[in-house]
């Protein structure tokens, strides 16, 4: 079995036996290519009562290479309005790009994104949203984001 | 789905204190498997040799604490390797014990409940209930949830404590069927016994081990004929043997200075296929250096044979290795998508001087400007000037909180 499959199998086992942290649930993990999880910010925040869905796409190099993570944008789920989340669901977060580490996991990414939403003070789209979304590649990993803002 | 051993195989702490933690502590945080050839980095964190060597090629920092570290800091951690070796042997046994314990408790609880039901009427029942804890019954109840358990559930504690029935069990490490009396010896030998350690492929024909070797050979036959590698049967037969304990690591190579011919020579020195373009050759050699050196980081008795390494290399190449992540051939990609890019550039142009709402963030403007120029230079990637919190999952502190400055002056 490939390393990526073994590793994902372990993560799945842990999710099913030990459960997921508060506000995070596993929606669909039928294979080891694409997983869906739901994310919800608990407690006081600008996103109270909103439920989002995250799509994870893994390549055979996982966990050495990062998963492609984005918010789902369909009839059921819409991406949150956040300065680092584009309206097509792409997320500009350094841990999904240059700051990815192979010891991180699906759940660790979810927790980080949850805290990114929880600490949001200004519910706006990124300033260049329209321009980016018009040209965005399907896979957010092909976008070279520039991380200049470590405040939010 | 194949069952993958995991710390959660063990019961939680209230039943088996510390076992999950112990199992977790002996696992690499990158691959999640028990350490294979554990190496420590500058900060002291420990990873499988292949995992950390691969990762250091990507980024020269510790994956756990992000302290910078390089290949020169890698040190073998012998005691961890010994601990893992022992744990591999002890794990199935302890797993069985702990599962028996769970069952025992469950039955005890059931028995007590039953006892409470009837105790008022017939106090004699009390004496009969402990018989439920009989080992035989325990074994019958356990459901085999995995391959390993399946075999183990057939083996009662009485067997493991010394009966000499010629039963065969599957090795928890290599999954091979091994006579039970020889399982410990088999594990001690790093899964090489019961057949004597072989130095030549195909020299053995004994029992199931021989069969597996044959399978390999089939694979190799296929691999070699498909890649058309010649160079067999030359004076390289000795490199076909198990790695010598004294073998030395292959030094890193500065590939960009090498001619393709030299690359092919280097590959054929190791009996590797020499097909493919230069990029493929480089990636193949690079991967070979990784797996070869990682193999040397293991105890000599745990090392894989060169054939096994080559087989894995081929598998790696078939599944992904041949290709780079993302856009493989940039030039071809650019050519194929020329029309799309032209359209994009055209679409981006009129927007260049948009009616700017006044902004007090000059740095931001600069970056946006830069984005536009870069997008025209290299249309295969789009750059976006927004970012987010770095690695930590701790909510970042805003400047206001940090300084405690009143917003209003």
Automatic annotation (TrEMBL), chain A:
Keyword tags: Ubl conjugation pathway
Spans through the membrane: none
Domain of life per record: Eukaryota
Gene3D superfamilies given in the database record: Ubiquitin Conjugating Enzyme
Coiled-coil regions listed in the entry: none
UBC core domain ranges (all copies): 3-152
Stored Pfam families: UQ_con
Keyword Cytoplasm: no
PANTHER family: UBIQUITIN-CONJUGATING ENZYME E2
Protein name: UBC core domain-containing protein
Record organism: Cerrena zonata
From TrEMBL, chain B:
Transmembrane domains' residue ranges: none
Domain UBZ4-type intervals: 168-196
GO biological process: DNA damage tolerance; DNA repair; protein monoubiquitination
Domain SAP: 255-289
Record keyword DNA damage present: yes
Residues of the RING-type domain: 28-66
Domain of life: Eukaryota
UniProt entry tagged with the keyword Iron: no
GO cellular component terms attached to this protein's record: nucleus; Rad6-Rad18 complex
Catalytic activity: S-ubiquitinyl-[E2 ubiquitin-conjugating enzyme]-L-cysteine + [acceptor protein]-L-lysine = [E2 ubiquitin-conjugating enzyme]-L-cysteine + N(6)-ubiquitinyl-[acceptor protein]-L-lysine
Major enzyme class: transferase
MF-aspect GO terms: single-stranded DNA binding; ubiquitin protein ligase activity; zinc ion binding
UniProt main location, coarse: nucleus
Subcellular location: Nucleus
Biased amino acid composition, Basic and acidic residues: 358-368
Keywords carried by this UniProt record: DNA damage, DNA repair, DNA-binding, Metal-binding, Nucleus, Transferase, Ubl conjugation pathway, Zinc, Zinc-finger
Region: Disordered, residue numbers: 117-171, 222-249, 345-409
EC number of this enzyme: 2.3.2.27
PROSITE patterns, alphabetized: SAP, ZF_RING_1, ZF_RING_2, ZF_UBZ4
Pfam family, one: zf-C3HC4_2
Low complexity: bias regions: 153-168, 384-397
Recorded metabolic or biological pathway in which this protein acts: Protein modification; protein ubiquitination
Protein family membership: Belongs to the RAD18 family.
PANTHER family per the UniProt record, alphabetical: E3 UBIQUITIN-PROTEIN LIGASE RAD18
Name of protein: Postreplication repair E3 ubiquitin-protein ligase RAD18
Origin species: Cerrena zonata
